[in-house]
Amino acid sequence: MIDLIGEMVPFAAVIALSPLPIIAVLLLLAAPAGLSGGALFALGRVVTLALLVLLLSFATDLIDDAAGSTTPAAVLRLLLGVALVIFAVRKWSKRPRGDDPEALPGWMRAIDTMGAGASLRLGTLVTVANPKELAMAAGAGLTLGGAMADSATIIGAGVLFVLLGTLTVTLPVLALAVGRERLIPALGSARDWFVRNNATIMAVVLLVIGAMLIGGGLEKLG
Question: Which domain holds residue 89?
Fold first, then answer.
């Protein structure tokens, strides 16, 4: 159980540190949609991530069973690691220079006009439309699908992965629910920090996880 959780935590960390969902939930909490908009956004993200990991773990298990070995999963892990290293290099090369923040995409600038339904859909979209997060979900699915453990252990590790991966969007919602208006300035400061350091954070994290996946894939192939 501990070993499986140890393998899942790095994937969850990359998803948790993905700046765009964090910025989006902080913007929603400060927008007219407020607490309800942020809560629905977090719900959409939690459910979507759980479904992705569930589907990908089943797919990995079916592939290994059909092939009669764990080689296909090892190759997929190796390819995923290479892709993440490439993502990391590209992200680092495109990072803002100096103190200039990264420009926000248009959908973020439109958050002030979003209602409850749009907030829920946004939580789903930022999860399925982000290649880096799909890669992390795939890595988690490969790990769970290839784990030599009982069903309860695999389910427990999967639940922990989803909880950790979405912690950075659920915590601000819970904090605002408890602390209300006095926390809004702190949430705004956190949002500005993530906007300014988005590229650097993701480049470093993706490089580390990519290297781990390459090493794990080569080990299983050997």
Answer: 2-221
At 175-190, the pLDDT tens digits run 888 876 666 677 777 7
Cβ contact 173:35 at 8 Å: yes
User: Rounded to the nearest 10 degrees, how much is the dihedral formed by the CA atoms of 86, 89, 94, 96?
Assistant: 140
For the chain, how long is the longest CA-to-CA vector?
58
Please name the residue ranges forming H helices in the chain.
2-16, 19-30, 34-67, 71-93, 106-109, 116-128, 131-145, 151-165, 167-179, 184-221
Sequence-distant (≥ 6) Cβ neighbours of residue 116 within 8 angstroms: 33, 36, 37, 40
What is the structure's pLDDT at 200? 76
* Range with the largest mean pLDDT of 34-48, 93-107, 135-149: 34-48
Quick: pLDDT tens for 126-138: 888 877 788 788 8
User: Number of folded domains in the chain?
Assistant: 1
- Within 13 Å of residue 176, how many CA atoms lie on the same side as its CB? 25
